[in-house]
Design goal:
Layout: E1 15-23, H1 26-37, H2 42-49, E2 60-64, H3 71-77, E3 85-91, E4 94-104
Antiparallel strand pairs: 1-2, 1-4, 3-4
């Protein structure tokens, strides 16, 4: 975990669920985002294009807390609007489209 994340009183951390699509290039990431904005299904595109093993589950990453993902990913997941596709987000793994599906404290 990253040492600079503080837990709220009671020791409970914010939790989120999200899904993502991971590709190698910014241009492919941007093209997929345009498809989603045009009505394409996020999960279908994740299954077809994502290089992450989560692609087979439509990009679903399950529930996680701060510090469990790479920093660039965390910054988006714990600040972005729910159900709004974010990205491209560049990490050491490539370019991501992210959608926060829920978040709770």
């Amino acid at each position: 975990m990253y040492a600079d994340y503080d837990q709220p009183e009671g020791g409970l951390m914010t939790r989120a669920t999200a899904r993502h699509i991971l590709v190698d290039t910014r241009s492919q990431c941007e093209a997929l985002k345009k498809e989603i904005e045009g009505g394409a299904d996020f999960a279908d595109l994740a299954r077809q294009y994502s290089s992450c093993p989560s692609g087979s589950q439509g990009g679903d990453l399950g529930e996680f807390g701060p510090g469990m993902m790479v920093r660039e990913f965390d910054k988006v997941v714990f600040s972005a609007e729910i159900s709004t596709v974010q990205g491209p987000v560049k990490t050491e793994f490539g370019y991501h489209l992210l959608e926060v599906t829920s978040r709770r404290d």
